[in-house]
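pinned: reference chain
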Amino acid sequence: MMDLDSLRSFIVFAEHLNFTRAAESLYLSQPALHTKIKKFSDSLGVRLYERQGKNLILTTSGLSVLQFGRQLIESTENFQATLTGGKPQASISLAAGEGTYLYFLGPIIQEFRRVSTAGLTLITAPSQEVIKEVMNGSAHLGITAATAYPEELRVTKLIKVPMVLIIPAKHLLATRTSIRIKHLQGLELIVPTVDRPHRQLIDRHTQAENISWNIAVEANGWELILHFVKLKLGNAIVNGSCSVPKGFVAIPFSDLPSTQYHLLHRPGADKTEERNILIQIIRKHFTT
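pinned: its structure tokens
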């Protein structure tokens, strides 16, 4: 029989993937937690984590145990509340990027709050982290613009948004209805750091056409990039859903790929009324 105390400890470890921080959260010593997780792993007959470089990652079995554990603990707590005459506290968690919350999800969250009394946890994370949050059960739903997803997830297309160039309204290019990569030649651009997918997209397409441009500022996040645009430090290539600062215009690219947003969830997991309500609201807003 699975030891529930060890399962709870494993869940905390899996959330940190660091024995020192997880042990502190559990008020245990690091060696004691390490031994506890090893015994738990041995009792299940599977490896729950492995080392990848300097990092610890969950194995496929570890991820499955984490998902099961979260569902079991939530079901147990709800059952105990029912036994004592209380009402189970329904809750749902949603993972998305900061820009997705800022430009898309405000009305969705407002409508959900109007029609549901369930608790709502909003997790902010980059695209790949959103996928991980849904996979490990931290989030019931995720919205992201990643280009590849694990087969275990159900992925629904939501909306496609073009990439645009933000430039001053008095710029020579400002009268165009669309632009191409070649028009970036010689421009000062505010761009993300090289580790970000958006920067890699810009580099890949400009290098393919041998277009030279200059880095004005490196900054991550649409809002921060647009902040520096408003300070007139340079131009920017951003998601077409972003708010255009006063005195600037947004011109769509005809030869940069649009950003496709997707809704993610794990089939068969957490089939609650609250999740279904939120899914319906999301689909309604993204298709109208």
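why pinned: Residues 60-83 form the longest helix (24 residues). Residues 91-152+267-286 form a domain with the D-Maltodextrin-Binding Protein; domain 2 fold (CATH 3.40.190.10).
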